TrEMBL record:
It holds the Pfam family bPH_1. Residues 10-132 form the Bacterial Pleckstrin homology domain. This is PH domain-containing protein. InterPro entries: PHb, PHb_sf, YvbH_oligomer_dom. It comes from Clostridium gasigenes. Residues 149-204 form the YvbH-like oligomerisation domain.
């Protein structure tokens, strides 16, 4: 217990270790992975108090109060509905013990210190997160444009004089077409699974 107090006092408990894939089943975060839905861990940083688990679907943060407490709060941030931004990496200086990766999810900032010997692995995570940010931003733009196109088409149809045909049937067809357009756009431009991105940058 004294070692844990000393580590907290020195700030050493905040320096995370990157956990090998063979040990994923030994961490707390594994209990909260949706294995049944194909969720898989691709990168995991563990400190004395916290775990930062990056899966193909989300960041799962197991938030601990202190190194000597077993109390944990589990927070889940699905990539498709939580915006990643301000992703940076800070390498270690000559006398530093750690390097650092920083990023924001919505308005919440994460600053994760990692053993400086793991800098090459941390660079891989940095690249994966940057790519996720780029993809989600591009898809968000395309989804907005898709909605604008549908609105323009709808207004154009509404301005045309209907001379023949059943008005109710015409309205039904327009409504069904609009629904299918929106559904197809959401399926195409809302990416939930980033397995391919993580595989491209991270070797487990």
């Amino acid at each position: 217990m004294f070692k844990n107090f000393a580590a907290d006092a020195l700030g050493l408990s905040d320096i995370g270790k990157i956990i090998s894939s063979k040990d994923y089943d030994k961490v707390d975060a594994d209990d909260y992975i949706m294995h049944e839905d194909g969720e898989k861990i691709f990168f995991l940083i563990k400190s004395r108090t916290d775990e930062y688990c990056f899966t193909n679907l989300a960041l799962i943060h197991v938030d601990g109060e202190s190194a000597i407490s077993k109390k944990r709060t589990v927070k889940r941030y699905d990539y498709y509905k939580n915006k990643l931004s301000n992703i940076t990496i800070e390498t270690a200086g000559t006398i530093d013990l750690d390097c650092e990766i920083k990023f924001a999810i919505n308005q919440e900032m994460f600053l994760i210190d990692v053993d400086k010997r793991a800098i090459e692995q941390l660079k891989d995570l940095y690249k994966a997160l940057i790519r996720i940010e780029q993809i989600t931003e591009s898809n968000e733009t395309m989804l907005i444009k898709s909605g604008e196109v549908l609105e323009i088409a709808s207004k154009a149809c509404g301005s045309q004089k209907i001379e023949n045909g059943d008005l109710a049937e015409i309205f039904k067809n327009i409504n069904e077409y609009s629904f299918q357009w929106i559904k197809q756009s959401r399926e195409e431009y809302i990416k939930k699974d980033f397995t391919d991105t993580f595989k491209n940058y991270i070797n487990n």
